[in-house]
Write a structure and sequence with these properties.
The complex is a heterodimer of chains A (161) and B (287). With 161 residues, chain A is mainly α. Helix content of chain A is 75%, strand content 2%. Classes of the chains: A mainly alpha (161), B alpha+beta (287).
């Protein structure tokens, strides 16, 4: 194994597990307080009321599902693409809230709703989400990581071919 | 099978092609151009590999989608259970009366000896309290009407700064004291006003550009069955009492929670109750 490959493996594993842990925590916190999640989604004021409850119900579990796939390294590229799309949506939501002068908490890790003016952290939230987006993009281009079901399945199919 | 370094390289190429969606055949074709027989052989091997790996990729993708769909479906079922409206269809309280002491409103059925008494801490501006009212309001109405539950309602005012008028929480708390004092003996009047405060068509949003005036609060009391409270509300008679009650209630709440003031909080026997979907059923079922 070359040194470059070892570095790539390490980076890939770090990106995969980092995103996975983030999703499992954020999804778990959102799922554990459904009333608050509804309020957080509604606070963005972007969705009609009928969609607010649906998104608030499904989003935590979509995050958990992506967290599980990334943890297992199953269909890493597919999971990374979905992760990227999700973060683009999140970043768009936060930018839109900032542009409209709302003072809300992003509700990214549970909580959410309105906060006092001056307590919003839009810039930090966007920078953080951009960081996650970079990790997702890395995995889209290099989805082959160690300790993954993907690699295991490939080595099996390789040996039987 | 042990792959030597050369086949491994081609296998890598094949893998990339399989995953890349495009150019699946270009790469081996360009490799083929005038290269050695050995290279050609490994290209053939790569193609074989590639067929097997294509299938593997399809299976992996399929499994992944099944996993996502399964987790979301299970989640939606859990969420539906967890956020289901309790005692749906019961509607407004018909038997409850309200009394006040030190700015705290106590709701119960007259002549009953409720086995369970809870302290409910809310702020009229708090959006999660509105969700709480939507989900558990009817169940509370029903339990109070049946004489099994008494509720001490503490309306706090810590969200004042988030309201347009900067004192909405206080004025709403004062209005609810007025309703309890002037119309508390009218069955259902207080709980009716309480529900109306948190109704989605009434409750102002945090940080929005408007809330209810005292006159509008008085009108709300009238339409929810407490017409005698109007003068008390518009004159602001209970403002000082509401501020004082909020301060003392925040202190008792902090004692129960270990320092945290957040709403809604239900306190039973001096400890906060975990507000799962069945919290009230569980409390009422206790011997």
């Amino acid at each position: 194994m070359t040194r470059g490959r070892a570095v790539r493996d390490g980076l890939g594993l770090l990106a995969r597990l980092g995103l996975s842990a983030t999703f499992l925590v954020s999804g778990g916190l959102k799922a554990s307080d459904p009333r608050e999640t509804v309020v957080a989604v509604r606070a963005y004021g972007l969705l009609p009321e009928s969609l607010v409850t649906v998104v608030a119900a499904a989003l935590p579990y979509l995050e958990i599902a992506l967290g599980v796939l990334l943890l297992l390294g199953l269909a890493t590229r597919l999971a990374a693409v979905m992760t990227g799309v999700l973060f683009v949506v999140f970043i768009g939501g936060v930018i839109s809230a900032a542009a409209r002068g709302l003072s809300i908490d992003c509700g990214c890790f549970g909580g959410g709703g309105t906060v006092e003016a001056g307590q919003t952290g839009y810039a930090a939230e966007i920078v953080r989400d951009l960081g996650f987006l970079v990790l997702a993009a890395y995995l889209v281009f290099r989805p082959d990581t160690p300790l993954s079901l993907d690699r295991w399945a490939r080595s099996r199919s390789g040996s039987t071919a | 099978m042990r792959v030597d370094e050369r086949t491994r390289d081609v296998a890598q190429g094949g893998k990339r092609n399989t995953q890349g969606n495009s150019g699946g055949t270009n790469r081996p074709a360009s490799n083929q151009n005038g290269k050695s027989a050995g290279s050609r052989q490994s290209v053939a091997a790569a193609r074989q590999l590639s067929a097997g790996q294509n299938r593997t990729q399809l299976i992996i993708g399929g499994v992944a989608i099944v996993v996502i769909v399964a987790i979301i479906v299970v989640g939606l079922v859990l969420n539906k259970k967890e956020s289901a409206v309790q005692s749906e269809g019961y509607g407004a309280s018909t038997q409850s009366v309200a009394t006040t002491a030190n700015g705290i409103v106590t709701v119960s059925k007259p002549g009953s000896t409720p086995a369970v008494t809870i302290d409910l801490y809310e702020d009229a501006l708090c959006p999660v309290c509105a969700e709480f009212e939507r989900q558990f309001g009817q169940q509370i109405n029903k339990a109070v009407d049946e004489g099994t539950l008494a509720v001490n309602v503490h309306l706090l005012d810590f969200l004042n700064p988030q309201s347009f008028s900067r004192d909405y929480s206080t004025r709403a708390a004062a209005a609810s004291l007025c309703v309890a004092q002037e119309d508390g003996s009218t069955p259902g009047a207080y709980l009716g006003f309480h529900s109306a405060l948190f109704a989605s068509e009434t409750q102002p949003q945090e940080g929005s550009s408007g809330d209810l005036t005292d006159q509008q609060l008085a009108d709300l009391a009238s339409t929810s069955g407490a017409p005698a409270a109007a003068e008390c509300i518009t004159s602001g008679r209970n403002i000082a009492a509401a501020v004082a009650a909020s301060t003392t209630s925040q202190e008792t709440l902090k004692k129960a929670t270990g320092g945290q003031v957040r709403t809604p909080t239900v306190v039973h026997n001096g400890a906060p109750v975990q507000l799962s979907v069945d919290w009230l059923s569980k409390l009422l079922a206790q011997p």
